[in-house]
Amino acid sequence: MATQGISKIVLAYSGGLDTSAIIPWLKENYGDCEVIAFVADIGQEREDLVGVEEKALRSGASACYIADLREEFIKDYVYPVLKTGALYEGTYLLGTSMARPLIAKAQVELALKLGADALCHGATGKGNDQVRFETTYTALAPQLKVVAPWREWDLRSREALLDYLKVRDIPTTASLEKIYSRDANAWHISTEGGVLESPWNVSNQDCWVWTNSPEDAPNESELVTVGVENGEVVAVNGKKMSPFACLEALNVLGAKHGVGRIDIVENRLVGIKSRGCYETPGGTIMMAALRGVEQLVLDRDCFKWREQLGQEMSYVVYDGRWFAPLRESIQAAADSIAKDVNGEVVIKLYKGQATAIQKKSGNSLYNEEFATFGEDDVYDHSHAGGFIRLFSLSSRIRALNEKK
């Protein structure tokens, strides 16, 4: 373990089991270094932040800084990804993936301000988050050393961590009964572990903490109108609000109707498959609204290109490459496409589904006169024959060659 040159460490701190143990462990193993706790408020449950400063100080931190990053998270991280339509492996709305680079960036900024020597995180050696944190550290402050306790210490289980804290008389709300690993922010909440470790086990009620089950959702549907400008949600039910406020409003409605639940097995970057239950109620509604406006506004080639951008962006974000030229390039292309994505969509919420049932846009390419199945005076059906003949010309030439 290399401790040379490390006297002040800024730790990405949540107050959970892992980071509660990390503070005393750092002081014991890094020459009684100064440990500063950094807490990012990205919209997690309010009770997660109650008493977090006192907890950090009791654990041995010299100071605890809490940064309100909620608006920045949604405006500068979530919304840009939404424009691309990114869904990792077709379903995951990247809640944890989008949050980590912001947390790491703010952590780096604090470390530089305080003159720290090193950065520390509580991500395990099996997960994606270690890559996301450290890739950001490298991009923004490569001169700072990185401490990753899960790759160094001999604490290998929840029981060992609880015993470690008990011996040192450090309080924690964690217990052996709380067997799920959760990550929450304004965008989503994820649940892993427990019964979910076997993909044959059906998720139970304990695996879902934010949304109603579709079975228990209201029997009456509810309509919500979403306003979109430049590929971004700007209003809910006619009321213009900030990105974070729009998400908060849609989260309440979506959770009520059981919207945004997925139960998936995903491929982690490190090569391990993992299972998780994700709840993204407001985000699912936003995605439905944006894609609804796109259907009206984008021509076929632009829509195809936007889908390709979303596919690539999903991997870039999932892999933690936020502060990379590739992400900036993809984002520039998505911003260009989104400049005409303006309109209004009515979303029907019912029993876990968010369905766009009405949509309009001043930039719509949809024309009822051309699209009608009734009689019209604007489209000559006979013109289609020449188009098809040219479109299939290569197939005609190939067939003639084969006959020869």
Overall geometric form = elongated
When the domains are counted, the total is: 2
Number of strands: 14
Please tell me the overall pLDDT: 94
Question: Counting H and I runs of at least 4 residues, what is the number of helices?
Answer: 13
Protein name: Argininosuccinate synthase
Organism: Hafnia alvei FB1
Binding site for L-citrulline: 92, 97, 128, 132, 181, 190, 266, 278
Main location: cytoplasm
Account of the 3D structure:
There is one protein chain. With 404 residues, this protein is α/β, with parallel strands linked by helices. The protein has two domains: 8-81 and 95-167, 3-Layer(aba) Sandwich (Rossmann fold); 181-298 and 340-360, Argininosuccinate synthetase, chain A, domain 2 (Alpha-Beta Complex), CATH 3.90.1260. 41% of the residues lie in helices and 20% in strands. The chain contains 13 helices and 14 strands. It has helices at 17-29, 52-59, 70-84, 95-114, 129-140, 158-167, 243-256, 281-297, 300-318, 325-338, 368-371, 383-391, 393-403; strands at 8-12, 34-41, 63-68, 118-120, 145-147, 180-184, 189-193, 222-229, 232-236, 239-240, 261-267, 273-279, 343-350, 353-360. It has a five-stranded parallel beta sheet with strand order 3-2-1-4-5, with helices on both faces. The protein has a five-stranded antiparallel beta sheet with strand order 10-9-8-13-14. Strands 6-7-12-11 form a four-stranded antiparallel beta sheet, with no helix packed on it. It is elongated and about 85 Å long. The termini are far apart. The relative contact order is 0.13. The mean pLDDT is 94.
